[in-house]
Amino acid sequence: MLLHIHNNLFIEDVQDHFSECFPWLKIEFYKNPLHWKNGPSEKDRIDPKTRIGNISRNHKVGILQIKSTDTVDHVENCLKTLFDLNVRIFRKENNCWIQACTSDNYTLRNRSIKSQETEIPTKAF
What we know:
- This protein has helices spanning 11-21, 72-83, 108-118, and strands at 2-5, 25-30, 62-65, 86-93, 96-99.
- It is α+β, with helices and mostly antiparallel strands and 125 residues long.
- It has one domain (2-118).
- The protein is globular.
């Protein structure tokens, strides 16, 4: 996946594109840097209708190639280092979104496969 980052891009556009490529994962954006000890705070989550230019202090424009073989940690770090964006990737497990920090060393592909395996089928009525 190629992620084009520029100031007029909405967070929701990044999230939609990411979810199209990795449907069992989602990406969220936060106001403050995230630390491995503390999970992201809901109050720090940025509204998806916000433009990248309103949250990034360095206003760099560029393209980030995200591959299924990249680790969760690598993608989060690249977005922070290259574009000053605080993100966290979540995985779907048992129909709930779970922070992927305990699996930061997993590749996006492995994380997606594991999430699919834990999916609870919905009952047909």
